[in-house]
Specification:
The protein is mostly helical. It has one domain. The chain is 75% helix and 0% strand. The protein has helices spanning 4-12, 16-37, 43-62, 66-74, 82-87. Helix 2 runs antiparallel to helix 3, helix 2 (16-37) packs parallel to helix 4 and helix 3 (43-62) packs antiparallel against helix 4 (66-74). The protein is globular.
Length: 88
């Protein structure tokens, strides 16, 4: 079993293509959380989640995966439609 310091070391030396799937999956997961729990979250919770989504998007940009991240953001299955937001 790996310890935390060896895991951190691996991440620090990882190439962007090795990080791609993890970063994109994190972005997808945060968008699903926002969509699925939109009605349960208060304003502060939504703001925190939106900041996390933005940070995950920026991480994707940093490793050169901006187009892939934009594609995730455009995926209507992961995002809350305007009609659903208007109902709330």
């Amino acid at each position: 079993m790996k310890d935390l310091s060896s895991t951190i070391e691996e991440i620090a030396h990882a190439k962007p293509e090795q990080l791609r799937d993890g970063y994109l999956n994190r972005l997808r997961r945060l968008l699903r959380l926002r969509r699925d729990h939109f009605e349960e979250l208060n304003e502060q919770g939504l703001r925190l989640l939106d900041r996390s989504i933005f940070a995950a998007y920026c991480d994707c940009l940093d490793i050169g995966q901006g187009d892939a991240a934009k594609s995730v953001l455009k995926d209507v299955r992961l995002t809350l439609s305007l009609s659903q937001a208007a109902k709330g």
